[in-house]
Amino acid sequence: MGKIEFIDLKAQYAGLRESVNARIQAVLDHGQYIMGPEVREVEERLAAYAGTRHCITVASGTEALLISLMALGIKAGDEVVTTPFTFAATAEVIALVGATPVFVDVEPDTCNIDVGKVEAAITSRTRAFMPVSLYGQTSDMDELNALAEARGIPVIEDAAQSFGATYRGRRSCGISTIGCASFFPSKPLGCYGDGGAIFTSDDAIAQAAREIRVHGQERRYYHTRIGVGGRMDTIQCAVLLAKLERFDWEVEQRIAIGARYLELLEGLNAVQAPVVRGDRTCVWAQFTVQVEDRAGTVERLNAAGVPTAIHYPVPLHFQPAYRDIARAAGPLTNSERVAERVLSLPMHPHLDRATQQRVVDALVQAVG
Length: 368
Description:
The protein is α/β, with parallel strands linked by helices and about 375 residues long. The protein has 2 domains: about 10-245, Type I PLP-dependent aspartate aminotransferase-like (Major domain) (Aspartate Aminotransferase, domain 2), CATH 3.40.640.10; about 245-365, Aspartate Aminotransferase, domain 1 (Alpha-Beta Complex), CATH 3.90.1150.10. Helices cover about 40% and strands about 15% of the residues. The protein contains 12 helices and 14 strands. The protein has a 4-stranded mixed β-sheet, sandwiched between helices. It has a 4-stranded parallel β-sheet with strand order 4-2-3-13, with helices on one face. The protein has a two-stranded antiparallel sheet with strand order 6-7. The two termini are about 25 Å apart. The mean pLDDT is about 100.
């Protein structure tokens, strides 16, 4: 039995070797490593995929969130409603612009923000909602968008893990005022370094984001606003262009492998399987279950040769950096509970049936 990979980027590269190498070589030949032609090309392709008028590539998913907040003019004294059960970048960017993260609890089964609790978090200082499409599945976006529209509040989808997922027939990143993707190598669509993108159909936001990513320049050496050095380099854009050639196939594989996991876990009462709502798809950036004895389960899985990860063990309202600067809008009981129980299993488009069965068999033994 071979080694089980948690995420198998080597197998992905083997299937795309010629295309990836040719795309990178083209950049090496023309030498435009910053804002080369591949940048515009991938932006056009990604915008068409997400169904938005604009795509602005940036240096990372974190930079996408930060630039989006800056483009909206969010600043000190403002509040942004989000979830505490996410990677730190979600709240980090809110703090970086001087605003206050306001945490709303998550649903216990999807681990996404509980949209039914958002309205109670709104104050006169609320300037944006930032739901996180955790593990590859969107939140209840129509309900959130309706709440936001009634109050003139923009919605920024933190779609770092969900590019390729759908919600009621529309694609993640194209279902709110702004969508922010990450192209970190392990994401459903990943490059070979850091990268990200901002998606919007609002022309003014797009223009602001384009200027902010190049130090606030409207044109060379003419700075209309405060900005950052936030460009995505040309080689990373070239890698994405190669990967887009079979991205639809990879999304199909992720959905099929996720469904197979759910089928194999059916009836295993000691494991709480993730839930995908019927009106959306999940691209399974992580396949994350919940167990009671996580430490023991991890130890036994590792002994069986099954790699695992925990996304995320400490909710943000318990993190020292955010404990005193954020505000909790009500109890965060679900966030605290899932943080103690979540466990991510191997997940990637090349996970074959035999290996997946090995993972589940080991899990059954580990929780038995």
